[in-house]
Backbone:
């Protein structure tokens, strides 16, 4: 029965990585025991700081890098030893490397031409990609006659004509300016919806990860830290690293301990915050122990209503400066000697010295001081 279930699972997943490791010839272990089941239509974003192993993972899926140990299964077939061109994948790179002497049409057609695909199919596929990407007016232009965004679309189009099961994209927007990145992000989302294909996308930009992904994989030093939807990852990060990596402005962290009776969090400054019923339950084995409390800037309140509701639990936020950003303000300062950022309503009054603030208690998260893992039931 168990075997049957595994088989079925493998058929509905487009891409499976089982205990995949990468050890480079010089002995460097770049990826450790990577496991994921990627379903058809998923938009998976591999995110993490430089050097964490995300490109290596993508390149192993593409077949550009050998898998040291473990299995890669695409459409139910183990493809560790299958050549890249036979893997049913198409890759879009950071430097989209178009052929300068070819027109857009020829660039789009190129991979099919070298595969000796019949001309009718080539034309059909090129026109399909050009339509999907709004490139029809530019088919006779050379790359140098295109804007950065249009060139990027041609690079994506070269992947679309191959009608792959999986699109692999390695930081495809990193060469574009901020405004263009924003609009290309939207285009990529729409394209993904239209094609209904599986996308695996590498970025070190957590905003791209949050906006594009159906699931994010955060990596650090070759290890997967967490695989979750953007919302899950934002609300329930598995550890301090993920909490700090995901979210802008970054999460606030406070050192302190839980009292012996597990009723409150005592910050190193002496400030005390009573725990909710659920937090008492979660922290029941942490009486008298040191923990790290995390509260996102979104969950630090300064409004009259919140302060009243939390009377007795408010603290002094020593303001260093604030930024007015239209509908909200970011207040930067310290709480009990530790950094704090509060994202407050644009209409909330902000002092330039000290102001009262409170944490939205039910949103506070607690992490084990030693392991840095989120404390959960
Ligand atoms: P970036 O965002 O900077 O591209 P990344 O997360 O994609 O980073 P990788 O390119 O996957 O990181 O590299 C992961 C680690 O493997 C890095 O420490 C890198 O120096 C190392 N590495 C990459 N290629 C090789 C190689 N051919 N031989 C040895 N080590 C390598």
Residues:
């Amino acid at each position: 029965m168990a075997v049957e279930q595994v088989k079925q699972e493998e058929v509905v997943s487009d891409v499976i990585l089982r205990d995949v490791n990468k050890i480079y010839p010089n002995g460097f272990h770049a990826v450790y025991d990577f496991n994921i089941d990627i379903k058809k239509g998923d938009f998976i974003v591999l995110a993490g700081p430089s050097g964490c192993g995300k490109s290596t993972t993508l390149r192993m899926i593409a077949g550009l890098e050998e898998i040291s140990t473990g299995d890669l299964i695409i459409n139910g077939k183990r493809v560790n030893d299958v050549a890249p061109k036979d893997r049913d994948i198409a890759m879009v790179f950071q430097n989209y490397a178009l052929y300068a002497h070819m027109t857009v049409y020829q660039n789009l057609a190129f991979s099919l031409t070298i595969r000796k695909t019949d001309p009718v199919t080539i034309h059909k596929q090129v026109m399909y990609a050009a339509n999907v990407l709004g490139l029809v007016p530019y088919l006779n232009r050379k790359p140098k006659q295109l804007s950065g965004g249009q060139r990027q679309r041609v690079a994506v189009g070269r992947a679309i004509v191959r009608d792959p099961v999986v699109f692999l994209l390695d930081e495809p927007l990193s060469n574009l300016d901020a405004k263009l990145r924003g609009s290309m992000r939207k285009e990529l989302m729409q394209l993904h919806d239209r094609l209904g294909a599986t996308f695996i996308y590498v970025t070190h930009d957590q905003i791209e990860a949050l906006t594009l992904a159906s699931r994010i994989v955060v990596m650090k030093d070759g290890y997967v830290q967490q695989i979750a939807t953007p919302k899950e990852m934002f609300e329930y990060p598995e550890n301090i690293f993920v909490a700090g990596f995901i979210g802008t402005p970054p999460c606030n962290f406070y050192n302190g301990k839980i009292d012996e009776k597990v009723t409150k969090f005592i910050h190193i400054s002496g400030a005390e915050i009573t725990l909710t019923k659920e937090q008492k339950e979660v922290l029941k084995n942490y009486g008298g122990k040191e923990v790290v409390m995390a509260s996102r800037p979104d969950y630090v309140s300064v409004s009259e209503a919140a302060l009243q509701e939390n009377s007795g639990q408010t603290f002094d936020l020593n303001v260093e400066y604030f930024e007015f950003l239209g509908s909200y303000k970011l207040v930067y300062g310290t709480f009990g000697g530790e950094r704090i950022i509060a994202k407050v309503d644009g209409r909330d009054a902000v002092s330039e010295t000290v102001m009262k603030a409170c944490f939205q208690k039910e949103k506070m998260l607690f992490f084990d001081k030693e392991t840095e893992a989120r404390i959960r039931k």
Notes: The longest strand covers residues 13-23.
